[in-house]
Amino acid sequence: MVERANKPSALAATPGLPPQAQVNISDDNSMVTAQLPTGETIEILLHGATILSWKDAAGDEKLWLSENAKLDGSGPARGGIPLVFPVFGTNSGHAVEKLPQHGFARNSRWEFLGKSTSEGATAGVKLDFGLSSQNLDEATRKLWPYAFGLIYSVTLDRESLNTTLVITNDGEVPFEFQTLLHTYFKVNDIESVQVTGLEDSPYVDKLDGLKVKNQSGTVTFTGETDRVYTPAKGPSHPIVISDGGKPRFRIVRDNLDDAVVFNPWVDKANSLADFTPKDGWRKMVCVEPGSVSKWQTLEKGDAFEAAQTIYLE
Ligand SMILES: O=P(O)(O)OC[C@H]1O[C@H](O)[C@H](O)[C@@H](O)[C@@H]1O
Questions:
Q1: In this structure, is residue 9 part of a structural domain?
Q2: Bond preceding residue 86 cis, omega within 30 of 0
Q3: CATH number for the domain harbouring residue 167
Q4: According to the UniProt record, where is the region Disordered (predicted)?
Q5: What does the pLDDT look like over 16-75, one tens digit per residue?
Q6: Which domain holds residue 273?
Q7: Is there a binding annotation on residue 227?
Q8: Which of the listed residues 262, 267, 288 should we mutate to test ligand 1's pocket, taking the one with most ligand atoms within 8 A of CB?
């Protein structure tokens, strides 16, 4: 059952009942945080429903966040897991061409819809967030005049983080969209990172005139990287990020055919005003499950559901 978290204080454990996750809304109403009884934590900024932090029970951060990421709603946050909808990048000649890069979802104020918890050894918490056409400002509604609903569910348990997006067409006409979960993983050293699960897969190289190439072997990093893979092994085959020879993250996609791999390296990081520290590119890699190489069409009354689950290795 979904219930609204108390505001602003935490839901304290009730004596005699099994411990459950504690959920807080910040005093300024900008952030939702949750902590499992076993210590894992998560922080979600309502601006963009952007997951800013995910820590394991030992307090180790799993996501990379820029030190000067915008957290005041003045723009999308650099780092964590921004949500891309309804366009990836920009797209000329399409109905979305006037929208900002990566669309409006990451730069809109979402509503916190509530939480549900599970108890016992696998105690977890699910937090639901919503955005609809009615939440958009008039200027954005004019640029993309469709009636839509987004429900974004973030589920944290001891071993994994799941982010599920349900998109509904609540209007009278079909619309086309792209979507992506722009996950910034925190790593120790990008030059020791290997991404497996993309072997023999075609990819579009955004840094080489959108040429279509083929991945041979694992993905390693020696310079700026910006590629849209359509993994050959299908959506349910995991993509694994290893760091220093050890597997760290296993990503399972559901209904997301593509995976973008991105690292800005020196020059691009320097060109991004909100990217700090400037050598932070050494400590991050983006592996971004999405549906971006083509357009999804959503007919009136239809829904599209997609997800990523990230397991800690
Ligand atoms: O700077 P942003 O708009 O957040 O985009 C950051 C990056 O997102 C994706 O990974 C794209 O493939 C890149 O081309 C882009 O540079």
A1: no
A2: yes
A3: 2.70.98.10
A4: 1-24
A5: 666 889 999 999 999 999 999 999 999 999 999 999 999 999 999 999 999 999 999 999
A6: 22-312
A7: no
A8: 262
Looking only at the bridges linking them, the beta strands covering 258-263 and 225-229 are antiparallel
What does the block give as tokens for 229? 């893979």
Please check whether residue 54 lies inside any domain of the structure: yes
The string of pLDDT tens digits covering residues 130-152 is 999 999 999 999 999 999 999 99
Task: Say if the ipTM goes beyond 0.90.
Answer: yes
| 288 catalytically annotated | yes
Position in ligand 1 atom list of the atom nearest CA 78: 4
Residue 206 CA, closest ligand 1 atom number: 14
Mutate to test the pocket of ligand 1, among 286, 288, 291 (most ligand atoms within 8 A of CB): 286
Q: Cβ(65)–Cβ(80) under 8 Å?
A: yes
Whether this prediction's pTM lies above 0.90 is answered by: yes
Here the tokens at position 206 are: 């955004």
Residue 242 lies in a domain: yes
Whether 10 is covered by a domain: the verdict is no
Ligand 1 center from residue 224 Cα (angstroms) = 12
- Tell me, in angstroms, the distance from the centre of ligand 1 to residue 242's CA: 22
Nearest CA residue ID for atom 14, ligand 1: 226
The yes-or-no answer on residue 102 being catalytic is no
